[in-house]
């Protein structure tokens, strides 16, 4: 069981990463309302069950992938209970040999450690080298729940705000797959 605080609608007083601080600055700047909870260290989807209950939603699974040469990168957003198979993802995206990116690439590209991958890492991708890929079922949800850029803070916001305000701000466009 992971500790989960009460929900708040303001940024935390301490940040677990530079990305997390930038996430909250950006959401405030874009006037995107959110609800956030401080947590104990949550590294797995099982750790997120208590977080889901507190937020009243299901936190997404965010997977960072790359091609064999490590020249193309993909941020894949799926339901938490989704069983990921690299071969199936590659087939849907029509790309050969995709694999999980290393912890070093995750830190260099998204500014986070394993377990904290988040869509907000796109704030660090000013060259638009990361392709955002959404499972359609997640894109269709009213609420979007994810890490804010650390393994000790999670949030929810309206999915519509993510697509209408945040992604245009970063300049990233999503591909949708089933």
TrEMBL record:
Which Pfam families does this chain map to?
A: tRNA_edit
Q: What is the lineage of its organism?
A: Bacteria, Bacillati, Bacillota, Bacilli, Lactobacillales
- Protein biosynthesis as a keyword of this entry, yes or no, is yes
> According to its UniProt record, which protein family does this protein belong to?
Belongs to the PRORSD1 family.
Record domain YbaK/aminoacyl-tRNA synthetase-associated: where: 43-164
Q: Which InterPro entries match?
A: ProX/PRXD1, YbaK/aa-tRNA-synt-asso_dom_sf, YbaK/aa-tRNA-synth-assoc-dom
- Name of the protein in its database record: YbaK/EbsC family protein
Q: Which UniProt keywords apply?
A: Protein biosynthesis
List the signal peptide residues. Answer: none
User: Does Protein biosynthesis show up as a keyword for this record?
Assistant: yes
Where does this protein come from, organism-wise?
Answer: Enterococcus viikkiensis
């Amino acid at each position: 069981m992971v500790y989960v605080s009460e929900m708040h609608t303001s940024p935390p007083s301490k940040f677990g990463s530079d990305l997390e601080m930038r996430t909250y600055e950006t959401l405030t700047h874009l006037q995107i309302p959110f609800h956030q909870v401080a947590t104990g260290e949550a590294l797995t989807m099982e750790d997120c069950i208590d977080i889901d209950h507190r937020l009243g939603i299901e936190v997404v699974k965010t997977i960072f992938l790359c091609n064999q040469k490590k020249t193309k990168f993909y941020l894949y957003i799926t339901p938490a209970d989704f069983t990921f198979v690299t071969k199936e993802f590659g087939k849907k995206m029509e790309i050969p040999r995709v694999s999980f990116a290393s912890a070093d690439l995750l830190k260099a590209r998204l500014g986070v450690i394993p377990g904290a991958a988040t869509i907000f890492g796109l704030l660090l991708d000013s060259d638009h080298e990361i392709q955002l890929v959404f499972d359609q079922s997640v894109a269709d949800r009213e609420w979007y729940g994810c890490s804010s850029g650390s393994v000790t803070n999670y949030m929810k916001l309206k999915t519509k705000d993510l697509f209408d305000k945040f992604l245009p701000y970063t300049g990233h466009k999503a591909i949708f797959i089933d």
